[in-house]
Amino acid sequence: MIVESHKNWFENERGITEATLEAFGVESSSEDWVALPYDNRMRFRRMAEPRTFKWGEGKGTSLYHAKKMTDKPYAFLCEGETDTMRLYQEGYDTTYGLPGFQTFNADTLKPLEKYKHVFVILDNDADYNVKTTVDTAWTRLRGVLGNRAKRIVLPDDVKDVCEFFDSYTNETFKDITKESIDGRYHYKSLDLSAAPPDYDWLVQGLICKGDVTLLVGEPNVGKSWVSMSLAVAMVDQQNKWLGYDMKHHGKVLYIDEENPHDVVYHRLRQLGLESFNNLRYLHRQGVRLDRNFDKLLDEAVAYNPELIVLDSLTRLHTKDENNAGEMAKLFNDSINVLCRETGAAVVILHHTNKSDSNSSYVKTRGSSDIGAAVDCGIEARKSSTLNNSFNLVHFKSRRSQVGGVKVVSILDNINGQVELATSELPA
User: pTM value?
Assistant: First the structure.
């Protein structure tokens, strides 16, 4: 027997009728508790606040279900007793419930082995930690049930089954159930019948818009001279840069967490910078890709540059560069997003390690995932024969043949300016 106050609560708060309570054998054990019968033992729910649960005598976890079940090729699995009862009440009489999605094992789910499809309904929760726990439980459930498990995703504006049927019709529930059988496409496929787009080169054959380019080299080899000269070529609309054809000109966003303030001014003047308004130079502003990336992204989207320079990688984050997972996250969550959202070419300056290897990949400091993540790789390698010179080695490209080597010499001219002169070497 269930007391009137408990019956009223189930009816008013969860939409569950007295007939449904009887179908599940729900009874009041006292003025404060109701008994919810499972196959192997009783579970008690405290009706007064705060809501709590306790188990009666017995061991193990079984599924919650009505006393009489019909024979159908499919079943539903809910979280909690009230959702299970409400779904049963709506006409889905092969409905089972778990007391919680963290309280099951393979043996618990054995009664579901006879069904062709098992529709799993998880609660919606805005709390990130709860959502993560629920998603982990779904992964475990699918691991046990295999392809028979089909996840029903409730609309965002309801938390659970009871709330769903307070706002939506049975027809809507049937539609989303059918959708779970048909499967869902979560990602957009390329239209491979379309004509291939042209490469949008910034620097012909070397740096492409929307790509990440890694410029590596040991300290003081000349990396900043290279990146600053590219910035000047962009904003001053120079036709050539280090012997390459320039295909785009325009605004440059330069983030410098490395070079001293006075050095920046002197080098840009020595390189002949004229179009000051098209170069937005952020000098030691505390930019950290893993901490305040949203601010940088806002800045980049507002400025709309053709080129973004990050000098240097190690100064722009707080992660462990030797950890592949942390570097992958840094690229996936910030650097690649910067490329995708702005369409700009992003050039990252980075240091080499102390390796004697001739491989630019091996010499790149930190995890090999850094070199693997970028679209283009260039190494500034100190010359063993020439002063104020280095070899520019093109060691990676997703779009063009690599292996070319240029000798770059940093030369002072009679006007007090600096020129980066180049000559070719065989690969």
Answer: 0.74
**Confidence grade of residue 129 (pLDDT, cut at 50, 70, 90):** low
> Residue 411: which of 385, 389, 382, 383 has the closest Cα?
389
What pLDDT digit, counting tens, does each position of 136-174 carry? 899 999 999 999 999 999 999 999 999 999 999 999 999
Q: 60: pLDDT confidence band, cut at 50, 70 and 90? A: confident
pLDDT digits (tens, 9 = 90+) for 254-306: 999 999 999 999 999 999 999 999 999 999 999 999 999 999 999 999 999 99
* Cα 42 from Cα 55, distance rounded (Å): 6
Helix 223-235 and helix 261-270: axis angle, to 10°? 60
Residue 426 has pLDDT above 60, yes or no: no
Q: 3-state SS string over 30-95?
A: CCCEEEEECCCCEEEEECCCCCCEEECCCCCCCCECCCCCCCCCEEEEEECHHHHHHHHHCCCCCE
Cα 224 to Cα 20, 22, 178, 210: the distances in Å are: 74, 78, 59, 21
Burial class for 126, CB neighbours closer than 10 Å (0-12, 13-18, 19+): exposed
Beta strands at 212-217 and 345-351: parallel, antiparallel or unpaired:
parallel
On the question of pLDDT at 386 being above 90, the answer is no
* Mean pLDDT over each residue of the chain, to the nearest integer: 94
Mean pLDDT, range 118-124, rounded to an integer: 93
Q: Which residues contact 236 (CB under 8 A, 6 or more apart)?
A: 272, 273, 274, 275
